[in-house]
C-alpha cells in the first residue's frame, strides 16, 4: 500500500557544495540517494515529497575530508506490502512453479500451491500461461490479477512478496487488453 | 534478509501494522496518481529524468485507478477524492454497546482501491476482513459513498 511518512537520512556534504544554493543541493542529493531505494522496514521510496527547511541539522566538519554530515528529515511517499492486504497486480511471467506479478516496482510471486484447485494443474508451457480446467481463466503476462500478500522478503535492495489467489474474490481481473474478465 | 514470517506483529486483516507505522498517512492509488502526475510535470519542466521505480509506480497507479477520468481537470478530481476521503474518515457508527466505530486509514485506502460500482457487502468483507466489525447496513452505506463518488467522477 502507498503511504506517506516522515523519515530521516544522513547526507555527506562536500565543501564544494557550501554556498548560496546549499539547500537545493541538499534536496537534490537527498533525492538522488533515496528515491527508488528499497528500505527494509519501510518499503520502496517512490518519491521525496517535501524537505521542511527547519528540520535540517548540520554536524561538525570532519578533519580528514572537510565534509559535513547533515541529518535531513523529509516526507516520503513509500510503497510497502502489508501481510494480508489485497492488491491488484500485473502479471509479468509464468513458469511451472507459479507466476510473477508486479505492483509498480514490487515483485510478487504466487506459487501454484496458492492457486485455486481448478487452476493448479493448468500450466501451459507453450503459451506460458496458467489456464483453469474449464478454460475460462487464462493467466498470462500482461493480465491483471487481484492477490493477497502472505509474506515478504528484502534482498539486495529489492523487495519480493509472496501472494495467493486462493481466497474468494481473488484472481484474474482483466486480460490486459482492456476487457474485464471474471472474478473468482 | 528480513524474516518471512512477521505475522505475529503485522496483519492488515486485523489492522495491526507495527510500531513504526503509527503516524503514517495511507494513500489510495487515485491520490498517488494525482501526486505523481504533478511531480512528473515539474520534473519534465526541469528536464529531469524520472527514475525506474517512479515510472513503474506511475504506470501501475494509472492502470489500477478506478477513481479517475481523463476528461476531468485535476482540480475537480482532487476535490472529489478529498471529499470522499473526508466522508470515509469521518464515517461513524454507534454499536449497540454504545461504542463508536470508525474506519482505519488502511480501510479507507483499501476501499478506494478495490471497490467497484457493483461490489457487494460480502466481497468487501472478504477483501478487507477488518470491515466485519461494522454491521452490514453500515458497510452498505460506506460502499454507497464510494459508488456515488465513482459515478460522479467517471461520468
Automatic annotation (TrEMBL), chain A:
* Segment forming the signal sequence: none
Its Gene Ontology biological processes? Answer: positive regulation of nuclear-transcribed mRNA poly(A) tail shortening; positive regulation of translational initiation; transcription initiation at RNA polymerase II promoter
Matches recorded under Gene3D superfamilies: Nucleic acid-binding proteins (2.40.50.140), RNA polymerase Rpb7-like, N-terminal domain (3.30.1490.120)
- UniProt KW Transcription keyword: yes
One Gene Ontology MF term: translation initiation factor binding
Q: Where is the S1 motif domain?
A: 81-158
Q: Which compartments does it reside in?
A: Nucleus
RNA polymerase Rpb7-like N-terminal domain spans which residues? 13-66
Query: InterPro entries recorded for this chain?
Result: NA-bd_OB-fold, RNA_pol_Rpb7-like_N_sf, Rpb7-like, Rpb7-like_N, S1_domain
Could you say which protein family the record assigns here? Belongs to the eukaryotic RPB7/RPC8 RNA polymerase subunit family.
Descriptive protein name: 19kDa subunit of RNA polymerase
From TrEMBL, chain B:
Gene Ontology annotations of biological process type = DNA-templated transcription initiation
Instruction: State where it is primarily located.
Output: nucleus
Localization per Swiss-Prot or TrEMBL? Nucleus
SUPFAM superfamilies associated with the record: HRDC-like (SSF47819)
| Coiled-coil regions listed in the entry | 67-94
According to its record, what are the GO cellular component terms?
A: nucleus; RNA polymerase complex
**What InterPro entries does its record include?**
HRDC-like_sf (IPR010997), Rpb4-like (IPR045222), Rpb4/RPC9 (IPR005574), Rpb4/RPC9_sf (IPR038324)
GO MF annotation list? nucleotide binding
Query: What's in the keyword line of the UniProt record?
Result: Coiled coil, Nucleus
Q: Which domain of life is it from?
A: Eukaryota
Q: What is this protein called?
A: RNA polymerase Rpb4/RPC9 core domain-containing protein
Q: What organism is listed for this UniProt entry?
A: Chaetoceros tenuissimus
Q: Which Gene3D superfamilies match?
A: 1.20.1250.40
